[in-house]
Amino acid sequence: xxxxxxxxxxxxxxxxxxxxxxxxxxxxxxxxxxxxxxxxxxxxxxxxxxxxxxxxxxxxxxxxxxxxxxxxxxxxxxxxxxxxxxxxxxxxxxxxxxxxxxxxxxxxxxxxxxxxxxxxxxxxxxxxxxxxxxxxxxxxxxxxxxxxxxxxxxxxxxxxxxxxxxxxxxxxxxxxxxxxxxxxxxxxxxxxxxxxxxxxxxxxxxxxxxxxxxxxxxxxxxxxxxxx
Length: 228
What we know:
Number of domains: 1
CATH class: Alpha Beta
CATH superfamily: Alanine racemase
Order of helices and strands: HEHEHEHEHEHEHEHE
CATH architecture: Alpha-Beta Barrel
Radius of gyration: 17 Å
Oligomer: single chain
Helix content: 25-40%
Strand order of the largest sheet: 7-6-5-4-3-2-1-8
Strand content: 15-25%
CATH topology: TIM Barrel
C-alpha cells in the first residue's frame, strides 16, 4: 500500500481518537519513522504530505536528511552517544532522547552561542531495564539542572511503553507521562516550556493520543519496512 493511502487510514484513526478525547487533531503531529526504509520511500512520505521525519541512527539519518535538504522537520529519536552529537545537531531539528547531563553538556558545547536545540527528556515510565530514560522522580531535578546549559530547550517529555498484545495495557504509562509533563509545565521554566508529549508508536499510538500525545512516532504502520 502506498504511504499516501496508509497516511489516510492513520489520520482517520487520529481524528477518531481525538474526538473521543475531546482534542483538536491539529495538535497531534505524525512523525514518519524512516529508519527501515529507503530514500525513495522517504521521498514518497514527504510527497504524501508528511512534514515530520524521524530517524534512529546518526549516520543513516544524516545521509537521508541531506538527500532532502529543504524538506521536512527532522527528529532524532534514537539513543545518542555524546561522541556523535557533532554530526547530529547539524542536521536535526529535534532530539527525543535527552537523558543525561553529559549529553546536554556536549550539545551545549557544540552549538554556537544563541542557538538552542529542541529536546524531549526521555523518561522510563514503565521501569523496564531494557529501556533508557530517567526515572519519573528524577525528571524535575534533571530539568532544573539543565538551566546551566543555554543551548538546551526542553519542549516536552518522551517515553516508550512496553510492547504488549493489548495496547490498552499501556494507557497508564502515557497517563503518567502526561501528569509528569503537567508538573514540569507548572514550574514555568524559561528553558523548559515542556508543552509536548512524544509517545505512542505503530502498535499503541491511538491510546497515546487519547492520553495527550502531541507527537506520535509511526514506522511500520505508515511507511513499512524495507531493510533491517
